[in-house]
Specification:
The protein is α+β, with helices and mostly antiparallel strands and about 300 residues long. The chain is about 20% helix and about 35% strand. The strands form two sheets. It has a six-stranded antiparallel barrel with strand order 7-8-9-12-11-10. A five-stranded antiparallel sheet has the order 4-3-2-1-5. It is elongated. The two termini are about 45 Å apart.
Length: about 300
């Protein structure tokens, strides 16, 4: 028997096969994933040391088809494997729940060991949650929320339909200007941005799906829409807010917008487009923006 952090231990009745008890494995004692395990039982909300008997089996977490299942312990994934929870630079790539847990724990000045003690879970499992994408059981999430004085909904990202940026600011933030190369890198090749235009009723801002092709920003819209304003200077903005870490960045491009009419240019835009407009409908008019000014800023911790 081999298990991984986050797997479930199910104990069944040998006679009927009916599930008698199950719990989340929150601690491993051997590198190869063999027993014993620290198990957070769903019926009692307690963590106990378990040596599984013949009536117990492991229910593994779902993973991508074709991937091998090595014992999942913090730091075991290969560097550069983002699907295993590691960024391309080899650093851990935590999930949103783990980042929210770590942020709240650090904001309250709690150590990982103290938080794990309050939540009645193994410190190794808390480290796993904070450092890797994970989907803890409802019982584990409730225990963590209780230990941190918050709610499970907040740790899961409750308020997803509300504007970002409602969390607390960093204790020691720094605001940095981005150079043009960094701005271009953050624009990347496509995404969702906002175009600001002047209208007879005053300034207006519209979200659009955009492409970046040869340093030109382009998007599709309806021919009679406001964003199809041609021959005027516009502002185009993209940003990213990391709600869990209270940091983020924004890039602003300013320049003339025009409707693309040349057949070759239209064909090239259509061939290289990554997505269709999310708004749907007949949006076949391409508008291009060639930035004359490109600026950006980033908010991050002072020690980065």
């Amino acid at each position: 028997m081999r298990a991984h952090l986050g797997d479930r231990l199910v104990v069944e009745s040998p006679a009927t096969g009916a599930s008698r008890r199950d719990g989340e494995i929150v601690g491993l004692h051997h590198e190869d994933g063999t027993p014993p395990y620290d198990v957070h039982w769903s019926d009692t909300d307690q963590v106990t040391l378990v040596f599984p008997g013949p009536d117990a089996h492991i229910r593994h977490l779902e993973h991508r088809p074709g991937r091998s299942r090595e014992p999942s312990r913090p730091g075991r994934a290969e560097a550069g494997d983002e699907s295993a929870g590691v960024r391309l630079d080899g650093a851990p790539n935590p999930g949103d729940i783990g980042r929210r847990v770590a942020m709240e724990r650090e904001r309250q000045g709690l150590s990982r060991a103290e938080t794990a003690r309050r939540a009645r879970m193994a410190p190794d499992y808390l480290a796993y949650l904070e450092q890797r994408p994970a989907d803890p059981s409802p019982a584990s999430l409730i225990s963590l929320a209780d230990a941190l004085g918050t709610t499970a909904a907040a740790l899961r990202g409750g308020g997803i339909d509300l504007p970002p940026g409602r969390g607390q600011a960093l204790l020691h933030p720094q605001l940095q200007d981005l150079d043009p190369d960094e701005c271009r890198a953050r624009l990347s090749t496509h995404g969702v941005g906002r175009i600001a235009v002047s209208t007879p009723d005053g300034p207006a801002v519209f979200p659009v799906n955009y492409e970046v092709i040869d340093d030109t920003i382009a998007f599709r819209t309806a021919p009679d829409s406001v964003p199809a304003t041609a021959g005027t200077d516009v502002a185009f903005e993209v940003d990213h807010v990391d709600e869990a870490m209270s940091q983020g960045w924004s890039v602003l491009a300013v320049g003339p917008a025009r409707i693309v009419t040349e057949p070759d240019a239209l064909r090239q835009l259509a061939d290289r487009a990554h997505t269709t407009p999310w708004a749907g409908g007949e949006r076949n008019t391409w508008v291009s923006i060639r930035p004359t000014r490109l600026t950006g800023r980033r908010i991050s911790p002072a020690d980065e």
